[in-house]
């Protein structure tokens, strides 16, 4: 069962994979990518956090799920943009074919590849939900929201973005 504890970016563990605990207060710092963070990347992470807050307040499970997916996508785009800019490693680039952000994330940030796999898999469901061909349960929406919050926190820490608190408590989330 998922926890409904708050995710605090200041005291968050490195979160290298989806099974990491979201509320540890004594964790090692994740390595920072660059300093200062490009404003575009910081803006994307800010939009991701704002999207999580909006999604957490959403009563419709399908919209909550889609909003959480979008927040994770924005955070992934931020770290892909930063890592692509600072990397001379050609493995991050596609050779004659388009890659989605989750595939790029796995290439430019291998320590986040488990997160990339999780969201890549659930992106197909988001497309079906948006098309109205399937629906998600409130529990699945809440789990996705919590996973997205953990991922956004991991990205923020890696980029060295200052503390932002996202309160994912029972006040906002339906416990199912």
Question: Which key phrases capture this entry?
Answer:
single chain; 176 residues; Four Helix Bundle (Hemerythrin (Met), subunit A); two-stranded antiparallel sheet; 2 strands; 53% helix; 2% strand; globular; disordered N terminus
Brief rundown of the structure:
The protein has 176 residues and is mostly helical.
Overall description:
The protein has 176 residues and is mainly alpha-helical. The chain has a single domain (7-15, 36-166), classed as Four Helix Bundle (Hemerythrin (Met), subunit A). Helices cover 53% and strands 2% of the residues. It has 5 helices and 2 strands, in the order βαααααβ. It has helices spanning 39-57, 61-86, 101-108, 113-131, 138-159; strands spanning 7-8, 165-166. It has a two-stranded antiparallel sheet. α1 runs antiparallel to α5. Residues 1-30 and 170-176 have low confidence and may be disordered.
């Amino acid at each position: 069962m998922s926890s409904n504890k708050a995710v605090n970016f200041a005291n968050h563990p490195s979160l290298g994979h989806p099974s990491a605990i979201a509320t540890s207060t004594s964790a090692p710092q994740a390595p920072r990518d660059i300093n200062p963070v490009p404003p575009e990347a910081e803006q994307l992470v800010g939009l991701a956090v704002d999207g999580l807050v909006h999604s957490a307040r959403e009563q419709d499970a399908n919209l909550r799920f889609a909003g959480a997916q979008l927040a994770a996508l924005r955070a992934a785009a931020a770290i892909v943009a930063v890592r692509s800019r600072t990397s001379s490693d050609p493995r991050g680039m596609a050779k004659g074919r388009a890659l989605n952000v989750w595939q790029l994330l796995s290439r430019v940030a291998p320590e986040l590849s488990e997160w990339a796999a999780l969201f890549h898999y659930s992106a197909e469901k988001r497309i079906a939900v948006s098309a109205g061909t399937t629906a998600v349960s409130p529990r699945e929406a809440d789990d996705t929201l919590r996973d997205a919050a953990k991922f956004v926190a991991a990205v923020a820490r890696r980029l060295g973005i200052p503390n932002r608190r996202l309160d994912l408590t029972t006040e906002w989330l339906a416990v199912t």
